[in-house]
Design brief:
With about 450 residues, the chain is mainly α. The chain is built from 15 helices and no strands. α8 runs antiparallel to α9 and α8 (about 230-260) packs antiparallel against α12.
């Protein structure tokens, strides 16, 4: 039974949370294990796989992964509200096993476009899982646990992203057997996620009488119109989606930034990913302590300020980096600006975690319970739209001649404008920030 006195770490000892946490962690891990292995081998062994511009291809892969969120989230939200969630979770995990089997064929046949198709399929898998994931928590946690529970899930997601990226980048470089290692690892993680999902407790449907729309595109518009009726929730959804724009702009450029600006080997790419992902996890866990275990929306503008400050400094640190020889992680940190760049990536993650967790908790607390999965699906649609726009924006700006550090500066300054807009639309955020500081 829920225990309002339990802290966020105590949840890991309870069946209502632990199997679900493990299943979602392994899903995030596998997404990024597979995607990072593909991006790494394309970036550092491009001619063996394709003649397409690597920078454009990396942004295309990022865009294709999240395209299903844009197209299918409304239907996924309906499915999550209509059916019992633990069974849905097990079905999604079985789908993941099948996708990784298809990807294995792509790896073995050296078929890049089959692997790209698997990226799209993994996007579909994550689209189906998203509404289940965030609507599950309010059914098993009491209100006082939602901030801590969301912090744990956010931390688990980004630690899964980090470890998946690390594992993918390392395994694919262990030639001549890197591809085999990736195949075995992705299939093993998919099976492990399915086994964890079998222990997730029964989670009744929120609206079993719901009739699934046969017109998914019309349902997208209907879903967003419904979400917009609750102004507080809708602004929180838009604010959350902005962070995904910011993160997509940063992470999609990181491989090329490492290779072309920092002249770094894959180990440098891994190091920067480590800093950013650990920062996200730390910021997410800090939210419970900073908020006193309750919803504290003042953390949202505090996190947004950090996103601008450290994003701007990342640009200046990048321009101050003077290394011209190819270096590993130790050589990178030996450069004058190396530690500063790593610190900026880490602190961007911390700021992102502090920014994002209160928004998720606010949506879960304020949205209509019977429509929560569809509200989360609406948020995922907006997330996807913002990330697609991020990928297109990055490609256009790169084609226009901007450097990757200039893209970072552009994003950080744009974040400042969005912060001002957010505070104007929702005065409760800056007011809560002042009250929290006092």
């Amino acid at each position: 039974m829920p225990n309002s006195a339990s802290n966020q770490f105590a949840l890991l000892t309870q069946r209502r949370f632990a199997p679900f946490f493990c299943a979602q962690f392994l899903g995030a891990f596998n997404d990024n294990l597979f995607k990072t292995a593909l991006v790494t081998i394309i970036t550092y062994d491009a001619l063996a796989w394709t003649t397409v511009n690597v920078g454009l291809l990396n942004n295309l892969i990022a865009g294709l992964f999240i395209l299903p969120f844009l197209l299918l989230s409304a239907s996924a939200g309906q499915i999550a509200d209509k059916f019992e969630k633990s069974q849905l979770l097990r079905m999604v995990k079985l789908l993941e096993i099948g996708i990784m089997a298809v990807a294995a064929i792509g790896w073995l046949t050296h078929n890049l476009w089959l692997l790209v198709a698997a990226i799209v399929a993994m996007g579909m898998h994550s689209t189906l899982f998203g509404p289940v994931k965030h609507a599950y928590l309010p059914q098993h946690l009491v209100t006082q646990e939602l901030v801590g529970g969301n912090g744990m899930v956010q931390m688990g997601t980004f630690v899964g992203i980090l470890t998946g990226q690390l594992t993918g980048a390392i395994l694919i470089t262990l030639q001549p057997h890197g591809v085999v290692f990736i195949i075995v690892a992705t299939l093993a993680v998919a099976v492990s996620g399915w086994l964890c999902s079998r222990a997730v407790p029964l989670t009744p449907a929120a609206d079993p009488a719901l009739v699934i729309s046969r017109q998914p595109f019309r349902e997208i518009a209907r879903n967003l119109r419904f979400a917009a009726q609750n102004r507080e929730v809708f602004i929180a959804m838009l604010a959350n989606s902005w962070f995904w724009f910011y993160g997509a702009m940063l992470l999609a450029q990181l491989p090329v930034f490492t290779r072309d600006v920092l002249h770094g080997e894959p180990a440098v790419f891994v190091l920067l990913l480590t800093g950013f992902s650990l920062g996200i996890g730390a910021g997410s866990l800090l939210c419970e302590r900073l908020s006193g275990g309750r919803l504290q929306v003042g953390l949202v503008p505090a996190g947004a300020i950090g996103l601008t400050l450290f994003g701007v400094d990342l640009f200046f640190a990048s321009t101050a980096y003077m290394g011209t020889e190819t270096v590993g992680a130790a050589g990178f940190l030996a450069q004058g600006a190396g530690w500063r760049i790593l610190a900026d990536c880490t602190l961007l993650g911390v700021a992102g975690g502090i920014y994002g967790v209160p928004l998720l908790a606010q949506i879960q607390m304020k949205a209509a319970r019977a429509h929560l999965s569809r509200t989360i699906a609406g948020m995922n649609i907006l997330n996807a739209l913002f990330m697609v726009v991020a990928a297109l924006t990055a490609m256009l700006l790169l084609l226009a001649g901007l450097s990757v550090p200039q893209l970072f500066l552009f994003t950080a300054l744009l974040n400042l404008l969005l912060l001002a807009l957010l505070c104007w639309l929702q005065p409760a955020y800056p007011r809560a920030l002042v009250e929290w500081r006092l």
